[in-house]
Design goal:
The protein is α+β, with helices and mostly antiparallel strands. It is built from 4 helices and 4 strands; from the N terminus they run E-E-H-E-E-H-H-H.
């Protein structure tokens, strides 16, 4: 699993992209900022469990009290960890095939 995750929102939903190096993650975060294809939030480091805010968000968060800053950071870390956990869950191909087999077949009406 890659160490760094870029957290962003798109259509009011959180998404993440994983990378092995921080420089890769920073480059993608900048692309999201430039292309405006989502709202960049920051970068999560899974090894240190730290969250680094995107520059504009860092400025906004610095105006908050320390306790509110900590709560915001903890919330983002929890979101990224949950997204990473969901991405790790292997898809059981047998269950997918079984699911298809158990679906009811439509009856064809003959005239």
């Amino acid at each position: 699993m890659n160490r760094f995750s870029v957290l962003y929102t798109l259509k009011k939903q959180y998404h993440h992209l994983s990378f092995s190096t921080r420089s890769e993650a920073e480059a993608v975060l900048e692309k999201i900022v430039r292309r405006r294809r989502g709202v960049p939030i920051g970068i999560y480091d899974a090894k240190t469990e730290l969250f680094f805010w995107e520059r504009n968000r860092q400025k906004k968060n610095s105006e908050l009290s320390f306790s509110k800053q900590a709560k915001e950071e903890d919330a983002m870390i929890t979101i990224v960890q949950n997204l990473r956990r969901q991405a790790e869950v292997p898809v059981d191909e047998e269950l997918i095939e079984l699911d298809i087999m158990l679906r009811p077949m439509p009856r064809l009406l003959r005239s």
